[in-house]
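Bumping with the actual sequence this time:
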Amino acid sequence: MYAFTQHRPETLRQAANLLGKQEEAKLLAGGHTLIPTMKLRLAGPKHLIDLSKIPGLSGIEMGGRSLTIGAMTPHVEVATSTVVKENIPALADLAGKIGDPAVRHRGTLGGSVANNDPNADYPAGVLGLGATVITNKRRIPADEFFKGLFETALEPDEIITKVQFPKAQKAAYQKFPNPASRYALVGVFVSKRGSEIRVAVTGAGVNGVFRVTAFEEALKKRFGPKSLEGMTVAADGMASDIHGSAEYRAHLIGVLARRAVAAAVA
């Protein structure tokens, strides 16, 4: 690990100022991606800005038809929250499938969304529910937030403070996990909110999370697994590695999408 200076700001403004002024600075939330990467010397930020001392960045609250979750809320709190289970149970299910107990107790919603790992679960939930990412500067719709592999719409001095999820009438998440890391080899999140249907896929695309509009259009006619029978996704643009070929991942998308819809209507 390369040498670095650690900062522990006590306000969001202090953190944003440090992030904007310090050269090669990184935010530290749960640290489950950043710290291992630094240990392997694949990353060497000169400054770490620890968000753990800043009040108001964690918590879960239901207001109206939206569920708001603070960026520093660990996965385990989302997975076990009565409020989440009562209002968007699919989101609690997703959080409970992330990694192992150690990861779920330390990893955070904001860290996962900001990192935008192509195999992470939360991006599928954010995009699949049409959530809004709220920062210290603005509100960013999910469709505008994810820009590609490990890339987001966040500006250099921008910090996620919370994510607002609209309550869906029906929603479910199905995942085919890597048996070692528990990352999604493929994960599919489906939701129905009024006439809006969303199908978001993580783990499969070379550019990270994406929506399958053909599946969405089919489900608008009838929201049931039979509507997706015989439908497939092209292997072009799918990732291929030792864990699964592009064709295998494309096939899994169809299988998991049908399972997710079946779970949503059950």
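The tokens above came from a reply further down the thread. The longest helix spans residues 246-265.
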